[in-house]
Amino acid sequence: xxxxxxxxxxxxxxxxxxxxxxxxxxxxxxxxxxxxxxxxxxxxxxxxxxxxxxxxxxxxxxxxxxxxxxxxxxxxxxxxxxxxxxxxxxxxxxxxxxxxxxxxxxxxxxxxxxxxxxxxxxxxxxxxxxxxxxxxxxxxxxxxxxxxxxxxxxxxxxxxxxxxxxxxxxxxxxxxxxxxxxx
Length: 183
Fold this sequence. Notes:
This protein is of the alpha+beta class.
């Protein structure tokens, strides 16, 4: 990109917002940097400024996403084996949901949460690859396999379909007496 093609501050932040609105998949800081003719660090700073100005930009392991305003959400308590993680996540995204996070309720530590923002099978593959290549294990293993996901979707009907599919597959777990109901 030529120097005259490099976008200046406000123009660049407008372009970042435009690109995030147009994309359905996360955009990496590197890709945004290439589009704007700046470094990845400049994009990270721009995103921080946009967030400070009220933009709901979420960071995922695959890049940045602009939160959608009309989404509905529901928390599902799950239980499954490690080898079934991909099936659980695929049920959610294949039916039109986004798995926003994973969290556990630990009796000693309370709620421990990690952002996921998984929207597609590609996101699932990337997530599972990251887990398999690292020394860390799935968060659910700190509580013997029990965990929760916040799932968003465009409608309650889609969340109902996801709930039914998770139940049919045997992935839903009942709440116990000691768990807080409102997470």
